[in-house]
Amino acid sequence: MLDSLITSKTRLRLLVKFFINAANRGHMRGLAEEFNESTNAIRKELNNLSEAGYLEKEAQQNRVTYRANIRHPLFGSLQDIVHKYLGLDRIVETVLSRMGEVEQVVITGDYAEGRDSGVVEVTVVGPSLNADYLAQLAPKMEGVIGRKVVFTLSYKKIDNGLVLYER
User: Fold this and answer.
1) CA dihedral in degrees (105, 154, 135, 21; nearest 10)?
2) How many CA atoms lie within 13 A of 142 on its CB side?
3) Which domains, from first to last, does the chain contain?
4) Can you give the pTM of this predicted structure?
């Protein structure tokens, strides 16, 4: 869907990295290693996104760190688009509809750090949750969003990760 609109794979990966979670940061060489891309390709896309105002850059010692510009008027819209591209909105809707007393839905692992690895780790927090439903839900969600989904249950709220829902 989004990959047909944004034809640069590097740009798409950078948008996922920075807009899935506003706390994510990166520098050119680290992003090149993470994406297994040339530093030139990363530099070009970082410059384009920075010049457009989507990313902020900050000099720290001898490297420049990039992050999403949360003050940009399109920040919320871009974040929503990235979440929809990854299917996170569908996961939340489906979990909330039949899981019981859900207190929190949190993405952990690679996606919380902005890496589109193909495995979405979702932790559902609540006092009495339907574990059988989750076991059936994972393969269905994989078919809907096109990524492997791994659900875990917890009774305690989680402090780390990307919180998609909290009551």
Assistant:
1) 30
2) 13
3) 2-68 (1.10.10.10), 87-166 (3.30.460)
4) 0.76
